[in-house]
Amino acid sequence: QLGTELLSFGADIRLAHMLIKAQQLDATLPGIYILSAYLVALLESRVKHAVDLNLALHSQLIKPHALFKQQLRFWLTRLKLSEVSELNTGYLPLLVALAYPDRLAKKRGNGYLLANGAGAELSEEYWHNDDYLAIANMGGHKGGRIFAAVAFTPNDITEQLSHLFTEQTRCEFDEKAGRFIHQDEIKLGAITVTSQPSKQPLDKSERAKAWLSLFKKHAFKLFNEQAESEQLLIRMCIASKLFPEQFPAITEAALVANNQWLALYLADLKTLEQLKRFNYLTALQSCFNWQQQSALNQLLPLRLTVPSGSNIKIEYQLDGPAKLSVRMQEVYGMTSTPLLAQGKLALLMELLSPARRPLQLTQDLTHFWQTSYRDVQKEMKGRYPKHFWPDNPATSVATSKVKSKM
Question: Contact, 119 vs 179, CB < 8 A?
Answer without folding.
Answer: no
